[in-house]
From TrEMBL:
Keyword line: Hydrolase, Metal-binding, Zinc
GO MF term set: hydrolase activity, acting on ester bonds; metal ion binding
InterPro entries named in the record: AstE_AspA_cat, N-alpha-Ac-DABA_deacetylase
Protein name in UniProt: Succinylglutamate desuccinylase
Cofactor(s) needed by this chain: Zn(2+)
UniProt xrefs under Pfam families: AstE_AspA_cat (PF24827)
Domain Succinylglutamate desuccinylase/Aspartoacylase catalytic: 33-266
Top-level division of the source organism's lineage: Bacteria
Length: 370
């Protein structure tokens, strides 16, 4: 049986001066495979990823590992404890208002100088030295004057530092009320078929602050920089945001299925000796991020959501009813909403009570089979 070690890393201090820590679990392989980093629960209400890490650890203990694994549940100890009544908030830093998953550090500025210096370096040297350059940059940020970092940045940079040791990065999230879907960089499109996830969002190179982007953007930029100098260099890191369904609940049976999905992908990436996990046969649909459309409530009211998540809707199909009882005597109190495109319903707002302009649904449009 493989041994699991635990380290609690210090990521800050709370108001009474006590340390703010995050648990980090590690399992060593035989040294011949890639390094895998998996984290969960960066947003406070998105708790299902913790159950998936639990199920992964149960499996990984008994596998013949080539890869080294680093697994981080409860990645944001402030977010998961950010409660309002019976609800968990924890999507935004309550002090700055910034999304917790938009505070990672952009290291793409390191690329051009590094590429110029290493145009003739071997493939292995490039990977080792560029990885270390990124980690050193994050170390400098973390060891600099403490007054220069917000609480969220300190948490994010510590997590990002761990992730940059890895060749494979999986950031486990959920939506509000959501079907499962995968954020996949276009260069890794083939890998998406090894997850047991029906809906895939294809994203281009561009840093917007999330962990998957922080992980793959510098390597993608490095690939482009070398290409300009006539050198072929594949993107060395694959990073995905894995959306596991809906927030505010854990489902251990579903978590086991999600763990098997991840293990299928990791078998494809040769992280095990004699890996037996295989993807489920299903039709997968891909949509470019530009075609992932938000539908905002055209009026305020109480919503009955009609479009089943994961379902294919036709232009003009009803997607929701909005009830406006304050207008019962003066006008029609019940309004049926439609969407004017063929689409796949991916997620909807968590509450039935919405203001005009609330993001009601998100839809795949212009989708294709993967």
């Amino acid at each position: 049986m493989n041994q699991i070690s635990q380290e609690n890393i210090l990521v800050g201090e709370i108001a009474n001066g006590l340390p703010l820590t995050i648990p980090v679990y590690r399992i060593k392989g035989d040294g011949t495979g890639p390094h895998v980093f998996i984290q969960a629960n960066m947003h406070g209400a998105e708790v299902q990823g913790n159950a998936v890490i639990y199920q992964l650890l149960k499996q990984l203990k008994h596998l013949d590992l080539r890869a080294d694994f680093t697994l981080v549940p409860y990645a944001n100890p402030i977010g998961c404890n950010q409660k309002s009544g019976e609800f968990t908030l924890g999507r935004f830093d309550p002090i700055t208002g910034t999304n917790w998953n938009r505070m990672y550090y952009d290291t793409t500025h390191l690329v051009d100088e590094f590429a110029a210096q290493h145009i003739h370096s071997s493939h292995d040297v490039v990977i080792k030295e560029f990885r270390q350059t990124i980690i050193n940059t994050l170390d400098d940020k973390l060891s600099g004057p403490a007054y220069q970092l917000t609480t969220g940045q300190r948490i994010a940079y510590n997590l990002q530092r761990l992730a940059h040791h890895a060749d494979i990065v999986l950031d486990l999230h959920t939506g509000p009320i959501s079907s499962k879907h995968l954020y996949c960089p276009t260069y890794a499109k083939n890998s998406a078929s090894y997850f047991n996830i029906e809906h895939v969002l294809l994203i281009d190179n561009g840093f917007a602050g999330a962990l998957d982007e922080a992980s793959f953007c510098p390597w993608w930029d490095l690939s482009h920089a070398f290409a300009k100098q006539g050198r072929e260099f594949d993107v060395a890191v694959e990073a995905f945001t894995v959306e596991l369904g809906s927030q505010e609940k854990i489902d251990l049976a579903a978590a086991k299925e999600d763990a098997l999905s991840i293990l299928s992908y990791l078998t494809y990436k040769e992280t095990f000796n004699n890996g037996q996990y295989r993807p489920v046969t299903m039709t997968r649909y891909a949509c470019h991020l530009d075609d992932y459309i938000a539908y905002y409530a055209p009026m305020g009211g109480m919503v009955e959501y009609l479009a089943p998540l994961g379902s294919h809707i036709k232009a003009g199909d009803p997607i929701a009813n909005i009830l406006r009882m304050e207008r019962y005597l003066s006008e029609t109190p019940l309004h049926t909403l439609t969407y004017d495109h063929d689409a796949i319903a991916i997620l909807h707002f968590a509450s039935a009570s919405v203001n005009q302009g609330t993001e009601l649904y998100k839809f795949f449009t212009n989708y294709t089979e993967l």
